[in-house]
């Protein structure tokens, strides 16, 4: 078993690619068409299983659970305990940390977008005042 500090470092490092993959698939332009298809199926299918399956590709929180499972299989990371209890704790901790990363990224991204809009408005106002085109 790894020392606790090493486990925590692994947890916070493994959460980075989990968050990155979950965010990219559920938010970024490169996956827009498949995501829109999944949203369409989600909204129109009668089957609850089909609806839930396609929903996971549209929700970063839901998708991060599946990505976390994949990373736990790849890394064999366990938290605090050996065996299934260590995997279970690692799974929920990994999802939690990854979602904190995604929340922080979403907040920063939104803040930057607001700053860009405000700067553009100030620039346009300045042009109106000075008469520049």
Task: Quickly describe the structure.
With 133 residues, the protein is an all-alpha fold.
DSSP helix count? 5
* Percent of residues in helices: over 70%
Backbone shape: flat
Radius of gyration: 21 Å
Tally of domains = 1
Number of strands: 0
Class per helix and strand makeup: mainly alpha
> What pattern of helices and strands is seen along the backbone?
HHHHH
Distance between the termini: 67 Å
Indicate the proportion of strand residues: under 5%
Mean pLDDT, to the nearest integer, reads: 90
Sequence stretches where pLDDT stays below 50 over 5 or more residues:
none
Characterize the largest beta sheet: strand count, sense, and whether it forms a barrel: none
Describe the SSE topology:
Layout: H1 4-27, H2 32-44, H3 48-55, H4 60-75, H5 84-130
Helix pairs in contact: 1-4, 1-5, 2-3, 4-5
Provide structural commentary:
The structure is a single chain. The chain has helices at residues 4-27, 32-44, 48-55, 60-75, 84-130. The protein has 133 residues and is mainly α. It has one domain. α1 packs across α4 (60-75), α2 runs antiparallel to α3 (48-55) and α4 packs across α5. The longest helix is centred in the C-terminal third of the chain and has 47 residues, at 84-130. The radius of gyration is 21 Å and the shape is flat. The relative contact order is 0.12. The mean pLDDT is 90.
